[in-house]
Amino acid sequence: MSESKSPRVELYACGTAAVPPDQAKSLVSDLEHRIIPTDLREFGHPRNFRKVVVLLSPLDSMTLGYFDENDILPSDPAHSNHANVIYVRPPYLMPDVSEMADVEEAAAHELQHLINFRIRVLDRHLPPQESWLNEGLAFYAQMANGFWTQRDVLKVKAAASDPGWSINSLVEGDRFLVRHARVAYGRAGLFVCDLVRRYGSSIARAVIRSPGSGLEEIDRALRARRPSASVRSAFAQGGADLVTSGATPQRWVGRLGLQHIQQASLVSAVTIRSDAPPWSSPSLRVRPWSQSFVTLRSSGSGALRVTLKTKSSSLFVALVATSSEDLARPRIAWFRPNVKGIAGAQIGNFGETYDSATLAASNAPALGSNQVPALFMASASVTPSGERQPTGH
Q1: Concatenated DSSP letters for 309-326?
Q2: What is the third-level CATH fold of 270-366+374-383?
Q3: Tens digits of per-residue pLDDT, 329-362?
């Protein structure tokens, strides 16, 4: 069989999970002609990948679908199916009105896990991927297939409301997932989708084939593509992208539209007055591989000047100016701290062309270094138009 040909699908139902013949036929057709080809195109084609078995089963209340590695490399041969098997809830047990979309989205998600495991472990003899990255890629698989269900909205909203959640802190296990599944899956998924939006779907294929673990896989894949790129810079850029996604009608991947979701700020939005002393923040804390945001607005118009102070070499901060009325494209200014840890950035026409500016702070430590929180302080002032601007940092 040519590797460019999509594998055939065998569909089974467990007991009460049986579905009407028309639903079964539609599901098999969509899997063979749309979902499996899409996943193979986005993530790569494992060797000898000839048939996929889909078992509809009444799973537990937390699980829409799953893939069992034991079916590929049996640790328990007596209970292994010795095949490419994914398990999915039947349509009538799905949580949304669009039952078949839920089934197909779960299938696309679990197929990524299956393809990922076969390529990394079976074909390339690499260790299984860290859970957070594997789940982030599976979230991207859903978007690449064009799905956007209520479950996805809840995950993205949870991620947007808690940017201080570290992207690599997802832990498998019911106790963790009951409390944190939405934000953990959402944070990892948004980061992977931003990588694909910037570097193309080939970055997903490269990451799956990359030696290392988690963040190191991404770093290797990025540096192989562009020597100046790194997982640290990509994560920092992702923080700025989260701000601009709320200010422009852009879509990231598939149906992943974030323009209606407001990113949470580390402190309440601050209004800067030109006739008042400069605003100064308290010491603000950013956990490793998380982001924090501070939103600034102005009661007048002029030039916004922001000064940043930090002793952390792992902190990347951008000043992102946006217009709620689409008067201009978002403008991004990156802070470049001097040897004293002080940096400045300035945005003109603040209060006119731009009515909001957000400090997007990302803590991206060097790989292998101590993973500790980063601290920073900021101050801001608005100089009315026509007044002489101070120079220097």
Answers
A1: EE--TTEEEEEEEE-TT-
A2: Jelly Rolls (2.60.120)
A3: 899 999 999 999 999 999 999 999 998 999 999 9
